[in-house]
Design brief:
The protein is an alpha/beta fold. It folds into two domains: 161 residues, Medium-chain alcohol dehydrogenases, catalytic domain (Quinone Oxidoreductase, Chain A, domain 1, Alpha-Beta Complex); 123 residues, NAD(P)-binding Rossmann-like Domain (Rossmann fold, 3-Layer(aba) Sandwich). The chain is built from ten helices and 15 strands. The strands form three sheets. Strands 3, 4, 5, 6, 7, 14 and 15 form a seven-stranded mixed beta sheet that branches. A six-stranded parallel beta sheet has the order 10-9-8-11-12-13, sandwiched between helices. The longest helix is centred in the middle third of the chain and has 13 residues. The two termini are 13 Å apart.
């Protein structure tokens, strides 16, 4: 038998339940992967809390909303244990990163081979399992804001899972980064090469002091009114502001809205196109996946309680 964690109803972390299921057998064109690590992402608890925003019909599968109660786990890494008929270039024993996937809170996942990329040997399981959703969201935001060498980028929420990746990807492109974060996270941001600033009253002035030459682009991973207003105040071209979350105030401002909802760019094709590049960067140590804490699969509710409380630096990971 194998385990999978699913919500038994909509609600808080207490609804997460571990079920026993049969070990899957791959069908035609399918691969079974034994999960070694699965990333925990805010999207997971938004799905079963009932608070997820409206989603375009053609993006429901990518958002994990094709079932009455959603499956959880949008990225993972593991070892191929079975290959179905018609599958080529994948072998039992391959160490892989799996994305996209919608049910990674499990001992095993069944996916098409198109969801697999090789895991770099130098990348640990926890880092590999938590890399893709946050990393590709960050890469998409950097791409949408047209960040390039010589830019100065303001990243709101620089110490979150997406923010940490965005900081590193922007610096990797040759940009300078000013990142908002609580004071306890400033040292890690400095280590990554960013200039940290406290969020809160007076943020625009602190950013100006940190970037006297001005800010040319902004990435909002927070979704607060402050992040929106300061970005619009400091960046002259709103098309160079990318936001992955926030209120309806964002609509009509001219900024780039990323996500699965109406009027937003899901970036599905772009994300698929840069998976291998992102894995290569992580495998080479050019970007770090910072792990805040790991939990056994059976403690998914505790992991979600910690994640929803906030205050962690980096990614939470489930280890089956």
């Amino acid at each position: 038998m194998a385990r999978i964690v699913r919500p038994r109803t909509f609600g808080g972390p207490e609804v997460l339940t571990t079920y026993e299921v049969d070990v899957p057998t791959p069908g035609v064109g399918e691969v079974v992967v034994r999960v070694r690590a699965a990333g925990v992402n805010p999207l997971d608890w938004k799905l079963y809390s009932g608070g997820f925003h409206e989603v375009d019909d053609d993006e429901k599968d990518a958002a994990g909303l094709t079932e009455a109660l959603p499956s959880l786990g949008m990225d993972c890494a593991g070892i191929v244990t079975a290959v179905g008929p018609g599958v080529q270039d994948v072998s039992v024993g391959d160490e892989v990163i799996v994305y996209p996937v919608t049910a990674a809170y499990a001992d095993y996942v069944t996916v098409p081979p198109s969801s697999l990329i090789p895991k770099p040997a130098a990348l640990g399981w926890e880092e590999a399992g938590a890399l893709m959703l946050a990393g590709l969201t960050a890469a998409h935001a950097i791409h949408a804001a047209a960040v390039t060498q010589g830019d100065t980028v303001l990243i709101h929420g620089g110490a979150g899972g997406v923010g940490l990746m965005a900081v590193q990807l922007a610096i990797n492109l040759g940009a300078s980064v000013v990142a908002t974060a609580a004071g306890r996270n400033h040292d890690v941001l400095r280590e990554l090469g960013a200039s940290p600033v406290l969020y809160g009253d007076g943020l625009a002035d602190r950013v100006r002091s940190a970037a006297p030459g001005g800010v040319t682009a902004a990435i909002d991973t927070v979704g607060s009114d402050e992040a929106l207003d300061v970005s619009l105040e400091l960046v002259s071209n709103p098309a160079r502001i990318a936001s992955i979350t926030g209120s309806d105030r964002r609509f009509g401002t001219g900024i780039r809205l990323l996500g699965y909802g109406p009027g937003q760019d899901a970036g599905t094709e772009y994300r698929a196109s840069v998976r291998s590049h992102l894995a290569d960067l992580a495998g080479a140590g050019d970007v770090r996946v910072i792990i805040a804490r790991t939990f056994p699969l059976s403690d998914a509710a505790e992991a979600h309680t910690l994640g929803q409380a906030g205050g962690t630096t980096g990614k939470i990971v489930l280890v089956p």
